[in-house]
Design a protein that fits this description.
single chain; 325 residues; alpha/beta; TIM Barrel; 11 helices; binds S-adenosylmethionine; binds iron/sulfur cluster
């Protein structure tokens, strides 16, 4: 079992497989994109597999594949095949914009990868396309329906942005009922690839909750898992559920069980830090688990207490596409 210097069990790895993306979501990166990594800067699939297997040996039981957009990188499905066979790994999940997942649905199902989080920030086609700066609304919507019809456990992630998509909150509550899914509203974080940082946000947890409860008074708190980042609720006489992720307010750090590895092989132990340990060179010099384990352990034994402590040294220039959410 992996435990950090604050006695938190670390069993969850968010593994970014690329920083590239076919969308340009306003809250994630500028319209012109970011400086995407060259292929040779990324971990190769073999290096990524070795690193992931080493984390599993150390006690990671759950891996979420993220990016950039994971399905943009060729070879993802082969990698998932290999990963799914590793002993000790209990769950693989994916966070995706669902533009390219359609053709992989059967293969994912066969691998038992059923937990898929889809980023969808509006149910209104024009608004969705304006937020993502691309025209994929119909593809994404149809793929979400396909995933649901195929029995996947789909969660919709919606970043709530003042003046952009707050009119979508109530339609998403309706959507959760109609489709019997979970919709999670995320507080916007300052990871948009600009230097713009924000001291506070307009639509925080309390405001989102208040808005929903004014229209749907019968909300009931669900029993969230021990390290859940979302507070989840059902609504009386309605199917599905909704959650709010206080990613800006950071009330969940005390039970944080997660670490992140970027597509370039940088281990980041808190979302809000700029500090990382780079594994690319190490893996090229000597691709052996015993060589990298001490570096992993050292980083995990030096974690920040919470995102506020980590933030003190951060400049907020990163795009979430580099970090993986
Ligand atoms: N491309 C995939 C997607 O969009 O789902 C995976 C990568 S994306 C960086 C992972 C998650 O980060 C998504 O749910 C996205 O909504 C979230 N995200 C990106 N930028 C964010 C921001 N500035 N604040 C809050 N969440 C953000
Ligand atoms: Fe791409 Fe996901 Fe970032 Fe949107 S949130 S630009 S889909 S990486």
């Amino acid at each position: 079992m992996l435990t950090d210097n604050h006695n938190r069990v670390i069993n969850y790895l968010r593994l970014s497989v690329t920083d590239n993306c076919n969308m340009r979501c306003q809250y994630c990166m500028p319209a012109e994109g970011i400086e995407f990594s060259h292929n040779k800067e990324l971990l190769s699939w073999d290096e990524m597999f070795l690193l992931a297997s080493t984390f599993i040996e150390l006690g990671i039981t759950k891996i979420r594949i993220t990016g950039g957009e994971p399905f943009v990188r060729k070879g993802l499905m082969d990698f998932l095949h290999r990963l799914a066979a590793v002993k000790g790994l209990e769950e693989i999940s994916i966070t995706t914009n669902a533009t390219l997942i359609g053709e992989h649905i059967a293969a994912l199902k066969a691998l038992g990868i059923l937990n898929i989080n889809v980023s969808m920030d509006s149910l209104d086609k024009d608004r969705f396309n304006a937020i993502t700066r691309r025209n994929y609304f119909d593809v994404v919507y149809n793929n979400v329906l396909q995933l649901l019809q195929n029995g996947f456990n789909v969660k919709i992630n919606c970043v709530v942005m003042n003046g952009l998509n707050t009119d979508d909150i109530l339609p998403f509550i309706e959507f959760a009922h109609e489709q019997n899914v979970s919709v999670r509203f995320l507080e916007e974080m300052p990871f948009n690839g600009h230097s713009k940082s924000f001291e506070k946000i307009e639509w925080d947890f309390l405001k989102i909750m208040d808005h929903i409860q004014q229209h749907f008074p019968g909300t009931h708190r669900m029993n969230d898992g021990p390290s859940s980042t979302s507070e989840n609720y059902t609504i009386e006489n309605r199917r599905g559920s909704f959650g709010i992720i206080p990613s800006f307010s950071r009330t969940f750090c005390g039970t944080c069980n997660r670490i992140r590895v970027s597509a370039k092989g940088e281990l980041q132990t808190c979302l809000y830090t700029n500090e990382s340990v780079s594994f690319k060179k190490l893996l090229q010099q000597n691709p052996h688990p015993d060589l990298i384990k001490p570096f992993i352990l050292k980083a995990i034994h030096n974690r920040f207490k919470d995102g506020f402590e980590a933030e003190e040294k951060n400049e907020f220039k990163k795009s979430m596409s580099l970090i993986g959410g």
